[in-house]
Every structure is written in C-alpha cells, then in structure tokens.
Amino acid sequence: MNILEKHNLVKKLVSTAAMSFVLLGGTYLVNNQTAQTVQAARRVVNVQTPGAIIHYIKLANKPGTHYFNKQLEMIDWAVDSPTYNMHGEKPDYSITFGGNDIVGTKTINGVHYFISNNYPGHFLVRAKDFYAPVSYQINKGQTVQTYNRGEARTENGDPVYLNSVGKNLKFGNGKYFMVLDKRGTGNRVKIQGEWYLATADQHGYFRYIKQSDLHKMHRAAHQYNVNSARFNKYGRFVGHIYELDD
Fold first, then answer.
1. What's the average pLDDT block by block, 10 residues per block, for the chain (246 residues)?
2. What letter does residue 218 receive in the DSSP assignment?
3. What is the pLDDT of residue 150?
4. pLDDT at 14
5. Among 11, 31, 148, 224, which residue carries the largest CB count within 10 Å?
6. H/E element holding 193?
7. DSSP element (H, E) containing 152
8. Are 110 and 219 in contact (CB under 8 A)?
C-alpha cells in the first residue's frame, strides 16, 4: 500500500460532515475554552505556501487555546502523525500525509497543537507535523542506503512495524524524492548510528534514506502523486491540492 492509498483510507475515517462545520466564535478567542458556540460565516483558507505555514505555526506556539474565525485546510506532512483528544491524551489513530481542517490552536504542557475539526467534535494534531517539504533529484549513478519500515497488523488490529536496513540501491537518473522535515513525528530515525530521513518518491511510495546520502542529491522541480505537491526549480514547496472525499 503506497502513501496515497493510506491517505485515502484515513480520509474515510474522518466524517464527511466535517465540511458542514460549526466554528467557535471570535476572531481569535484567547484562553476561552468555554466560549459559547456560535454559527460563523463559512470561510475556508487553503494554506499552501511556506510563509503561510510558518505564520500559523507561530500562532500555534502561543500559550493557551485560540479559535479562528475561519477554517484552514492544511496538509500534515509527517509520517504516522498521531491525533490526540482535546486534553492531549490517548492518540486515536495516525494519519500519513493527511489533510486537516484546522479551526484553532492549543498548547498543553508546553506541547503545541492545532485543533482539527471532526464534526461534531474536535481533536488535536501536533503543530510540528506541519511544514513545507523539499524536493530532491538523485544524481546520475548515485547509490543510497535505504531503511525500510514494513507495516503489519495483529489480530486486534494494532500496527506492528517490521524494520530492516536495505541494500545500497542505485536509482536511475531522474528519480525524485520529496524529503520530509526532520522535526515531524516519525520523520527521522537512527539506525546503527546513522540518521535516516523519511522521503516519498514521485509515485508516492515511502522509504527512509540515509541523511548523508540525501545531502549528495540536488534540489529540483517536480510534482508528486501525494496531494499533488508541487516544487519549483530550487526544490522549494509551491503548493498542493487538498481533497476530502465524499
């Protein structure tokens, strides 16, 4: 199962009624968890650019609880980012490159979250899992060391990860990798003393690649089959398509 298939599976877990949401009133309600719920005019902003992402991350880093007067459509680019209840406890399930309908921010014990709308309730997603990834192209004839994380399920449905360091793989010229930010949940692992970063190739397949090998690649423009993420010639994130299935 590739990234897209996982993403579509998770989206089905999120109620489609989320598009008919009720926002909590106020432009930015500070430290007001008991604010009266009011019907707000629907205003949806698709957050795509790095500058806009950074702006909302800064808001998320403010202490307290804050609700927007709009809904943000944002992509969570972290690997298996858990979702928490409104008390910051008990992750319910994980989202791989999932879309989120953000309605506010919340800080609990120094941990910064976005409040994600899931009609008729809400849940929390760590703010550090939202950022702008970078696109790289492998150099001709370059070999990279991969770390594969296979996933299986127990009889109870709990995930079991099968970890193994792969062989040196030589990819043909033209292979692109979307490199995920090391700050995101699950985006960086240390194996046998070496750091590996999470990546997705242009077809949406996921693997960890040795960080030292990634440093040998060069930034390049490409569009990926993961939320149609687009990058310019400098490998900088340009934007994405946000979709919520019916």
1. 45 29 29 34 82 94 94 90 88 77 94 87 92 91 72 59 52 78 88 87 86 91 93 95 61
2. E
3. 55
4. 33
5. 224
6. none
7. strand 143-153
8. no
Contact 99, 67 (CB under 8 A): no
Length, in residues, of the chain? 246
Burial of 165 (0-12, 13-18, 19+ CB in 10 A): middle
Distance separating alpha carbons of residues 16 and 37, to the nearest angstrom: 21
Residue 5 has a pLDDT of 46
Q: Within 10 A of 199 (CB to CB), how many other CB atoms are there?
A: 25
119 and 18 Cβ atoms separated by less than 8 Å: yes
Distance between CA 109 and CA 99 in Å, rounded? 25
Q: Torsion over CA of 202, 1, 119 and 181, rounded to 10 degrees?
A: -40
Q: Which pair of structure tokens corresponds to residue 226? A: 């993961």
150: how many CB neighbours lie within 10 A of its CB?
Answer: 9
CB 181 within 8 A of CB 77: yes
The pLDDT score that the predictor gives to residue 158 is 58
pLDDT of residue 24: 25
CB 70 within 8 A of CB 25: no
Q: Extract the tokens encoding 228.
A: 């149609």
What is the dihedral angle through the alpha carbons of 34, 93, 227, 211, rounded to the nearest 10 degrees?
Answer: 110
